[in-house]
Amino acid sequence: MASIKDVAELAGVSRATVSRVLNETGQIKEATRDRVHAAMKKLNYRPNPLARSLATSSSNTVGLVVTSYRGSFFSELMAEVQEEMDQQGKFLLVSRGKRSRESEQLALQRLTDMRCDGLILHARNLYDEELIELAQQETPFILLDRQVEGLEDRCIAFEHAEAGKLAVEHLIQHGHQKIACLAGPRERLTARLRFQGYEQALREHHIDLDESLVAEADYDRQGGYQAMAEILERHPDITAVYSCSEEMCVGAFDLFREQNMTVPGDISVISFDSVSICTMLTPAVTTVHFPIKEMAAKASSALSSLMNHQPLRKLDTFKPELRQRESVRTLK
C-alpha cells in the first residue's frame, strides 16, 4: 500500500507539501498540486482518514440520532441524510435512541465521544434543558421534528396538530360523523399533537369526542391491526378511521381483508403518510403528507452551514399537504 512518503518521492516534493495538498492548506503552486494528484493516482494512494482528522482537527463525520433503525419512516430519514452527507464528503454515523431518555442520552454520548463535526438529532425524549445545555457546547447540531424555545435557529419542525385537523376535517366534509382514531402512544409529543388535531376538528364541527372510538398503539403494523380490531369490536358501525401513521394504516387494512370489509365501501380511511406506503394499498389511501425526506435534507443543509460557521435564522416549520386518493367515500 502506497504511503505519503511514496507520493512525495514520485512527485518530487516534500511530505509536508503532500500533506498541504491533501488538507487544502497553505499556498501551493498549481503545477505542484497537479504533480501530487498525478502521483496519488498512479500509486492508487488513499489518505488515512484518521491521520487526516488529527491534522485538521476534524473527524469528517456527522452523527445522526434516530429512535429506531426499522420502519419506512426511519429508512427514509437515514437514506436522505446519507445522501446529503455523501455529497458533502462526510461519513455518517448513526446511533439508535430507542424510546427512552436514557437511551437517547447514551446515543448522543456515543456520537460526541466519536468527535463528530456535527449532529442531527431526531430525539423525542431528551429534556429541553438538556438540549439548551448542549447548544452551549462546541459541536453544532440540528433538531429534527422538534421545537425548543430558545433554539429556534436549530429546529426543523412540522405542524402535526394542523395535519391531524386537516385529515379529520376532510372526513367530516365528506359526511362522516362517527370517526375512529388509531392514535400513537400519547406520552410522545408528536402523537399527542396528532390526536389534538383530531379533537380540534371534532370540536369545531360540534361532534362530541368519544374516547371509545380511540385506540392507542405503537406506530407499527401489528399495533394498527390490534387497535382497529378493538375499535370495531366496540363500534362496528363506524364509517371512517383516521390513522396517525402509515404503518398502522397497513395493519388496519390487514384486518379489513380478514373481515371482508371494503375501502371505501364499508369504511373510509385517511392516514398520515411520510413515504409511499399508502399509495401501494388497494385502494390508494388519502393522506396528509409528513415530508420527512424534505425535512431531513433541510436539516443536513442547515447543519452544513453551522459547521462552516455560517449564521442561521429561524428554520422552517413544514406544513401538511392533503393528498386525495381513493379511500374516502362521500356519505349521502
TrEMBL record:
UniProtKB keywords: DNA-binding, Transcription, Transcription regulation
Keyword match Nucleotide-binding: no
Annotated HTH lacI-type domain residues: 2-56
InterPro entries xrefs: HTH_LacI (IPR000843), Lambda_DNA-bd_dom_sf (IPR010982), Peripla_BP/Lac1_sug-bd_dom (IPR001761), Peripla_BP_I (IPR028082)
Keyword Nuclease: no
Domain of life the protein comes from: Bacteria
GO molecular function, one term: transcription cis-regulatory region binding
Protein name: LacI family transcriptional regulator
